[in-house]
Amino acid sequence: MNRLEEYWKANTSLIRNLLIVWAVVAYVLGILLAPALNGIRLFGGPPLGFWIAQQGSIYVFVVLIFVYAARMKALDREYGVED
Amino acid sequence: MSVEVWTWTIVILSFVLYLGIGYWARVRETAGFYVAGRGVPPVANGAATAADWMSGASYISMAGLISFLGFDGAVYLMGWTGGYVLLALLLAPYLRKFGRYTVPEFIGDRYYSNLARVVAVIAAIFVSFVYAVPQLRGVGIVLSRYLGVDVATGVWVAVLVTAFIAVLGGMKGITWTQVAQYAVLITAYLIMGIALSNLLTGNPIPQLAFTFSDFAVRLSELQVELGFKEYVAPFQNLSALNVFLITLTLMVGTAGLPHVIIRFYTVPKASDARWSAGWALVFIGLLYTTAPAVAVFSKYNLLSTLANKPVEEVRQIDWVQKWEKTGLLKLQDKNGDGILQMSGNAEVNEVTIDRDIIVLSTPEVAKLAPFVVGLVAAGGLAAALSTAAGLLIVIASAISHDLYTRMINPAASEATKLLIARVVIFLVVVLAAPFGINPPAFIAQLVAFAFGLAASTFFPAILLGIFDRRMNMQGAVAGMVAGLIFTATYIIGTKYLGWPNFIFGITAEGIGTIGMLLNFVVAYLVSRATPPPPAEIQHLVDDIRIPKGSAGAASEH
């Protein structure tokens, strides 16, 4: 496997991992498990399932993109393909 | 000063600002016209993307929509933000590395086919047009509600302002006006959200007030008491399957909308496209995390102010009188007992509230200074104008760049190309006006179309173009055509021809996900049954996968 293929593989596995988090937060916690999570209330606020679906998921999405950008910056440098 | 005078002043000042920026950012070459010379810093591009993305509907209607849907309103919140994750990870940096001007151009070049180019041009024009019309109308509505201007006149004002900025400065003019428009719209929205949150909870930060107060639960209980559905419980208004599929369609559609994608062509480097998507979501998130708080607080306030109160007492309230006049709020004492009954049962319900009131009435309900009302109006205008401009340049560049320059007259001089681009954008903007004045269908329904079609055509074609080296012309074209026909047929059939939601009860808003899956399957099968793409295309794919070299791309044209 050459260097570029290795770089691409590292990139796609990073994407895969981040997309798993994305899907779990939005679709598993925010939708599928929302009825169950609504039984939990943190800090006297809204039910957890509702809070994740309407607020928490957005914070996670922002973090995912910045983690990706930072990790890719390191990866670009490691493989000498930075622009 | 009166509310009217404040509103006129702020609206006119903001328009002068936009026109000034439009004039300052005028361009003389096509790279400036189409991709702002690729000189936009990532943070500024994030703000421009946020303004481009957040439409008049996000600004004026979304909080109201959420407040009526309760939990299920999450489809908009997660759907319209989660798509940026897909965009940042799967599309933006590679499209920036590819480094041309438009989305159809990527599809046409990657699939070495003018047929693919034309399919993409048609889809880009259709998606953008469908989305642009309600924006123009949004400007007309905001101007008419706040300033008493005729809706048609308001639409023409929008058209002329947009045409001026776009014709002179193209993408460069649009980008920098969008940065200013973002500042105006977010300031207005946050002032409104902060004041409302402070008034009701004593906590000025709407996100914290939403998270740490029990208002959502109290609203939920009040709704149940009045016979409405529980606010915080999922799947009261949409089935679980539809919540799932609509969210996914809106996410994938967001990632596939050409006016959002082309914003990432304007940053200097491929790595900047990744950061820029993050900044875009930060700026969008500021509004999108405020909206559910505004939805809860204003709905609670509306219900507790109006329900079971004497009609005469309610009619004394200033904002009630004002909104009753516009027809957006209707009070009818059906049983003649002098008390307003509010109920989930339409037979006994005596208060009808238009969803748009939730945001539009907030400054008055929260008794904010008159200039805030003007600022909210200007924010609504900024949201609608910035999105309209972003969409119209997609249509204009699809015609002038992809059809004219790439297919009809590739040898045209720089001056001719620029002239054609300017004439086309002027014509597109002016031709859109009559549709804005008399839109063919309800605003939100039209927007659902745009997402379904973007999700079922562009997203798979672009994604496969980057991640599947073996994907060829035959596969991509067959996939796009299958996705487009399937999705359009289902939406038109179920929305307008009275067909039932015949696939598992999936609504028109969520069908784009199925169209996307169909596109993937057809594209895969057809591509594997036909010859692989030529070697130079496979090299092109290898090339866009690495950021190296993207910084110099602007000079290649």
TrEMBL record, chain A:
Keyword set, alphabetical order:
Membrane, Transmembrane, Transmembrane helix
Q: Tell me where in this chain the Sodium symporter small subunit domain is found.
A: 5-82
Q: Which InterPro entries match?
A: Na_symporter_ssu (IPR019886)
Give the stretches traversing the membrane: 18-37, 49-70
Give a yes or no for keyword Membrane in this entry. yes
Q: Does the UniProt entry include the keyword Membrane?
A: yes
Top-rank taxon of the source lineage equals: Bacteria
Name of protein: Membrane protein
Q: Which organism is it from?
A: Thermus filiformis
TrEMBL record, chain B:
Tell me the Gene3D superfamilies matching this sequence: Sodium/glucose cotransporter
Q: Which residues cross the membrane?
A: 6-25, 75-95, 115-134, 146-167, 179-200, 243-265, 277-297, 371-399, 419-437, 443-464, 476-496, 502-526
Record's bilayer topology term: Multi-pass membrane protein
Positions the record marks as coiled coil are none
Name the InterPro entries on file: Na/Glc_symporter_sf, Na/solute_symporter, Na/solute_symporter_CS, Na/solute_symporter_VC_2705, Sodium:Solute_Symporter
Give GO terms: molecular function aspect only: transmembrane transporter activity
Q: Name one GO cellular component term.
A: plasma membrane
Give the UniProt keywords, A-Z: Cell membrane, Membrane, Transmembrane, Transmembrane helix, Transport
Q: Which family does it belong to?
A: Belongs to the sodium:solute symporter (SSF) (TC 2.A.21) family.
NCBIfam families to which the protein is assigned, alphabetical: Na_symport_lg
Entry protein name: Sodium:solute symporter
What lineage does UniProt assign to this protein's organism? Bacteria, Thermotogati, Deinococcota, Deinococci, Thermales
